[in-house]
């Protein structure tokens, strides 16, 4: 394509110069000597030789002029093509747009039009990106809200139906056990087993309801959330809950992580520990955040539980702590309770207020 353009420019220039040269030759050389031509070969050569010189000079001049014109014209065209290519590729900040001078071929008006087009496309893309981000955020919020509402609905139904029935069964079994002295040993043993199963079912139900709670704090600090959670459980479970928490300033997402960890620790204790006392301490010391959780329950073999059963949920807790750059230390012995200490270094300032 460009080769044909080059040839076209060359031919036009050459023919233009040839026309001028031919006219010059006729009027200045051929016409004055026409009357003196004797028809010999030498005389003909004498007349035609100047024309040949002019023809060669025309070709050389046309070629040089074509090269110069081609260079300037297509330099501008290359610049224009580069800008259009950058626009098509959405590279609106390309260095090519810093060159505002478009040259003679493209013209300043075309350069201004391209700059307006670039600004318009850039604004449109930024608006589209902002809309996409907003739509994704709204979609995520809607999903989270739906999940939250469904969790609350299930929790209400479980509390109003299964939990109440388990409580009623506990009351009935308590009344029956009061008459245990009048029963034969076999029935008395069966009643005891049923009562133990109902107690375990209630513990499982409390743990499930705890998991169905909102996993994030709402208009509360971490300390307030933990204290409220312990107060609520004290009214529902025959366990002594003790919480000593310091109002440590953390980013909301970090507080939510720690609050969820406390929920999972409580759930594990309610389901497995058979504890009478559950304690939770949250404080800051030596630029570290400490979370100490303990119970006086049945305990377990830490190596065995972590390797075989995943530590009845402790693996999830360890993963959450690791996401915060912290460490988890688990101390537990069978029939001697459990102590879990979580340490999060305060030096990770990027996640704290």
Automatic annotation (TrEMBL):
Residue ranges of domain Histidine kinase in the record: 153-348
Record keywords: ATP-binding, Cell membrane, Kinase, Membrane, Nucleotide-binding, Phosphoprotein, Transferase, Transmembrane, Transmembrane helix, Two-component regulatory system
GO cellular-component term (any): plasma membrane
Bilayer topology term: Multi-pass membrane protein
CDD domains reported for this sequence: HATPase_UhpB-NarQ-NarX-like
Main localization, broad class: membrane
InterPro entries tied to this protein: HATPase_C_sf, HATPase_dom, His_kinase_dom, LiaS/VraS, Sensor_HK_TwoCompSys, Sig_transdc_His_kin_sub3_dim/P
EC number of this enzyme: 2.7.13.3
MF annotations from Gene Ontology: ATP binding; phosphorelay sensor kinase activity; protein dimerization activity
UniProt-listed Pfam families: HATPase_c, HisKA_3
Membrane-spanning segments: 7-31, 51-73
Compartments, as annotated in UniProt: Cell membrane
Record field: catalytic activity: ATP + protein L-histidine = ADP + protein N-phospho-L-histidine
PANTHER family, sorted: NITRATE/NITRITE SENSOR PROTEIN NARX-RELATED (PTHR24421), SENSOR HISTIDINE KINASE NARS (PTHR24421:SF37)
Protein name, UniProt field: Sensor histidine kinase
